[in-house]
Amino acid sequence: MKQKMQYIQTLKQTLKLNQKLLKSLDFLTDNIDDINKVIQDILETNPFLELKSSKNYDNQQFIESISNKRSLKDDLYYQLYAYTHPYNEDVMTYLIESLDDSGFLSYPLDQYMSDLHIDQDMLDAHLDILRSFEPNGVGASDAIDSILIQLKNNNKTKTYTLFRDYQDVILTQNYSLIKQTTGLNKEEIDHLFYEIRSCNPFPCNMYNTSHDDYVSPDILIEVENSDITITPINQPALMVNDTLYEKVKNDENMKAYFNEAHFLMENMTKRNQTVLIVANALVNIQSGYFLYDDELYPCTLSQLASETGFHESTISRTLNNKYYSFNGEAYPLKKLLVSQTASGDSSDSIKKAIVELVDDEDKEHPLSDNQILKKLEELELHCSRRVIVKYRQQLNIPSSTKRKVLKKVG
Fold first, then answer.
1. Which of 53, 133, 143, 343 sits CB 3.0–4.6 Å from 382 for a disulfide?
2. Nearest-5° Cα angle at 14, 8 to 17
3. 352 and 393 in a common domain
4. Closest to 298 (Cα-Cα) out of 311, 287, 285, 308
């Protein structure tokens, strides 16, 4: 009798723990590895939930521990949930999900307004919220913009204003020109440089220090005879033991476990269906990329929402931390979501052209950003010089002065 009471008490404590885990789990946003950890915990305590074998699921991988290092977006969402002032959740989710690996905005500002159907004031208000979060400088358009945000947040008002208004002159590091343009003396210019250099142009790179973390793709993309096949993989094949429930259904504790098992099954099914629908729409749009290795086609969240019937915020959450496997490699699913420049050209095509131009340039006389811009125009690819700088930084291509190779003498 004593043992029975103790057994029931243990069940209640574990059930509370699992309910808490399920409540905190965002089935759509979390990746399959995080979800698998929760499932493994519940499998150990829930008598009605069972794991079947599946040819597209690695049971050993399910048991192995996965790195639980928090990502940049995880930290941003934690800060957002703690934010006490009013905000539009859909807008903030879109902004956070659009950040690239360096924590920079992936799209032009006018595209955000178009996709979200908001005006400039609304966008600026939500960008201010994002840029108030840590790490200082997140949500910038590029490295220079990140420095400006940090200066502003750190109340370096004078340096912020000078760097904002005389950015091109200051970046030359030509004291005479800076003095002539700004009226500052040498001591003031030294202090200006000191405050600028105290900022980190890539403050979010701390989240990208390790590239060895194993990721589990949600889908496998295969091409055979000009046909593209999409197959769900790494999905645990779960089942609920209804026969066992018939024997203990009068026990309230057992009924709670049974409901928990069905709740998990229903949400996993809904998650997997949503991921598959979104992935299918993306792959259909980017079919040329998979079939013929063409450049990625411009595609926005708004377009995907129209194709699938889901809201933009649902699309954003679905693409978060999801990977696809293709030709033996794993890639982020959101990489198939390609922005376009204000002129309508694909950012992917512009980036590829920049790489080719730099690879073929005269190393003793490397192309300046303006020269790259002119050559792109000759290729009928149009964007601004600011976009060239941004893409060059994203591609880890140094400036022309740092790419220059001195001619050997003798």
1. 343
2. 145
3. yes
4. 285
